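so i finally got all the pieces together for this one. its two components total, 268 residues if u count the protein bits. some of the lines might not be protein, just check the labels. i wanna see the whole assembly predicted at once instead of chain by chain like last time, that was a mess tbh
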Amino acid sequence: MFRDAGGRDEALATMTGQFREWLRPRLRDGSYFGFVMSDDGAPVAGIGLMLIDWPPHPAHPMQDKRGYVLNVFVEPDYRKRGLARELMKLAEAEFVRRGVGYAVLHATAKGRPLYQGLGWNGTTEMAKTLDGER
Amino acid sequence: MFRDAGGRDEALATMTGQFREWLRPRLRDGSYFGFVMSDDGAPVAGIGLMLIDWPPHPAHPMQDKRGYVLNVFVEPDYRKRGLARELMKLAEAEFVRRGVGYAVLHATAKGRPLYQGLGWNGTTEMAKTLDGER
């Protein structure tokens, strides 16, 4: 997904190893969940979901969690068939089922129109890379 | 802060109670930290900081944490003197001291130019309010 979005292989290789380590216990305990679509047993599209701890906020005054959508990916041969849209609908329903009423994601340029069409809007988030470890 | 940014009193009252409950244990265990500036013993400006769990990401491939800046506020009589800028510099240095190299925040329209001037940039975050509890 990150390569598809223009990431450099070197940084991605480092991240992939770290992400795999990070993911393993969270898949096991269910704190990272999601959906995979398969065609004849082969995965062709997927979406990752988490509930992230967040201070109660005007957008969710009673709740200290937000849904987070990540790792949305559809294999190139399976694009333009609405699979990502279906995955997003499954994701939204799953958040609601788990009692969460506010969710965020970070969109690639390619993904942005899809999310906008489903009622997602840009936020005021800003970020900075600092001199610390990364 | 949220009222200053145009929030409705009713939603803010709910949130404030929930936030206070949420904050108490986190102030105690140090997971919410920050800086307060005072004038003759009275607080006049403050900034809240957290380290939030996040999957290793191209912007921080080795780390599973990001810094988060929240609740930046300067009392009206103390604005236009650079206090928020000083608080942000303290925040960035504190993140680096704690070994974090990537941080995020959500800016009000009023705060945005300050953060931009310090090298912060908008992200691709998007959000949606769902039918679940909030």
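DSSP finds three helices and six strands in chain B.
Chain B touches chain A through 60 residues (CB under 8 Å).
anyway lmk what u think
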